[in-house]
Write a structure and sequence with these properties.
117 residues, alpha+beta, two-stranded antiparallel ribbon, two-stranded antiparallel sheet, 4 helices, 15% strand
Protein backbone atom coordinates (compact mmCIF):
# COMPACT_ATOMS: atom_id res chain seq x y z
CA UNK A 1 0.00 0.00 0.00
CA UNK A 2 1.31 3.46 -0.93
CA UNK A 3 1.73 5.56 2.22
CA UNK A 4 3.49 8.54 0.63
CA UNK A 5 0.62 11.01 1.16
CA UNK A 6 0.38 10.15 4.86
CA UNK A 7 4.16 10.50 5.26
CA UNK A 8 4.05 13.87 3.48
CA UNK A 9 1.29 15.05 5.81
CA UNK A 10 3.39 14.13 8.85
CA UNK A 11 6.42 15.86 7.34
CA UNK A 12 4.40 19.00 6.54
CA UNK A 13 3.42 19.22 10.20
CA UNK A 14 7.07 19.29 11.32
CA UNK A 15 8.16 22.39 9.42
CA UNK A 16 11.12 20.47 7.96
CA UNK A 17 11.55 21.23 4.28
CA UNK A 18 14.64 19.30 3.24
CA UNK A 19 14.15 15.77 1.93
CA UNK A 20 16.32 13.24 0.14
CA UNK A 21 14.85 12.39 -3.24
CA UNK A 22 16.15 9.38 -5.07
CA UNK A 23 14.65 6.05 -5.97
CA UNK A 24 17.59 4.34 -7.67
CA UNK A 25 20.32 5.02 -5.12
CA UNK A 26 20.99 3.10 -1.92
CA UNK A 27 22.85 3.65 1.35
CA UNK A 28 24.31 0.88 3.46
CA UNK A 29 27.35 -0.54 5.20
CA UNK A 30 29.87 -3.01 3.85
CA UNK A 31 33.54 -3.90 4.11
CA UNK A 32 34.48 -1.37 1.44
CA UNK A 33 37.24 -3.18 -0.43
CA UNK A 34 37.71 -3.79 -4.17
CA UNK A 35 36.35 -7.34 -4.19
CA UNK A 36 33.09 -6.42 -2.49
CA UNK A 37 32.82 -3.23 -4.54
CA UNK A 38 32.55 -5.57 -7.54
CA UNK A 39 30.58 -8.33 -5.80
CA UNK A 40 27.67 -6.25 -4.54
CA UNK A 41 26.60 -4.78 -7.92
CA UNK A 42 27.21 -8.18 -9.58
CA UNK A 43 25.00 -9.92 -6.99
CA UNK A 44 22.27 -7.31 -7.45
CA UNK A 45 22.42 -7.81 -11.23
CA UNK A 46 21.93 -11.55 -10.69
CA UNK A 47 18.91 -10.96 -8.44
CA UNK A 48 17.44 -8.22 -10.66
CA UNK A 49 19.06 -8.50 -14.12
CA UNK A 50 19.06 -5.42 -16.35
CA UNK A 51 17.88 -7.51 -19.31
CA UNK A 52 14.48 -8.52 -17.87
CA UNK A 53 11.19 -7.13 -19.01
CA UNK A 54 9.93 -5.36 -15.87
CA UNK A 55 6.53 -3.73 -15.48
CA UNK A 56 8.34 -0.41 -14.97
CA UNK A 57 9.67 -0.73 -18.53
CA UNK A 58 6.14 -1.01 -19.89
CA UNK A 59 5.29 2.38 -18.39
CA UNK A 60 8.52 4.35 -18.82
CA UNK A 61 10.79 2.52 -21.31
CA UNK A 62 13.85 3.98 -19.56
CA UNK A 63 15.82 0.77 -19.03
CA UNK A 64 16.05 1.05 -15.24
CA UNK A 65 13.28 -1.12 -13.82
CA UNK A 66 15.94 -3.32 -12.25
CA UNK A 67 17.60 -0.22 -10.76
CA UNK A 68 14.50 0.62 -8.75
CA UNK A 69 14.23 -2.95 -7.45
CA UNK A 70 17.92 -3.08 -6.49
CA UNK A 71 17.72 0.24 -4.64
CA UNK A 72 14.50 -0.79 -2.91
CA UNK A 73 16.12 -3.99 -1.67
CA UNK A 74 19.11 -2.15 -0.17
CA UNK A 75 17.18 0.91 1.03
CA UNK A 76 17.56 4.68 0.83
CA UNK A 77 18.65 5.27 4.43
CA UNK A 78 20.81 3.97 7.22
CA UNK A 79 20.86 4.32 10.98
CA UNK A 80 24.25 4.05 12.68
CA UNK A 81 24.58 4.20 16.47
CA UNK A 82 26.92 6.76 18.01
CA UNK A 83 28.95 6.10 21.14
CA UNK A 84 31.23 8.68 22.74
CA UNK A 85 31.07 10.82 19.59
CA UNK A 86 32.01 8.02 17.17
CA UNK A 87 30.06 5.89 14.73
CA UNK A 88 29.63 2.36 16.05
CA UNK A 89 30.72 0.23 13.10
CA UNK A 90 32.63 -3.01 12.70
CA UNK A 91 36.39 -2.86 12.26
CA UNK A 92 36.20 -2.99 8.46
CA UNK A 93 32.66 -1.67 8.03
CA UNK A 94 32.19 1.49 5.98
CA UNK A 95 29.13 3.52 5.02
CA UNK A 96 28.54 3.50 1.25
CA UNK A 97 26.26 4.98 -1.41
CA UNK A 98 25.54 2.75 -4.38
CA UNK A 99 24.05 4.19 -7.56
CA UNK A 100 21.87 1.47 -9.06
CA UNK A 101 20.65 3.51 -12.03
CA UNK A 102 21.78 2.88 -15.60
CA UNK A 103 23.31 6.35 -15.93
CA UNK A 104 25.36 8.53 -13.58
CA UNK A 105 23.40 10.75 -11.24
CA UNK A 106 24.32 13.75 -9.11
CA UNK A 107 23.12 12.95 -5.58
CA UNK A 108 22.92 14.91 -2.35
CA UNK A 109 23.31 12.82 0.76
CA UNK A 110 21.71 14.28 3.88
CA UNK A 111 23.01 13.26 7.29
CA UNK A 112 20.69 13.71 10.25
CA UNK A 113 22.05 13.27 13.74
CA UNK A 114 19.63 12.53 16.59
CA UNK A 115 20.45 12.20 20.23
CA UNK A 116 21.26 14.00 23.41
CA UNK A 117 24.39 15.84 24.45
Amino acid sequence: MNRRSQACEVLAGTGISRRVKFSTGAIGTIEFEPGLQQDLPAMLDKLFPPSRDYGHEQAWHDGNGHSHLQATMLGPSLTVPIKEGNLVLGTWQQVFHLECDVKPRQRTIVITVMGEE
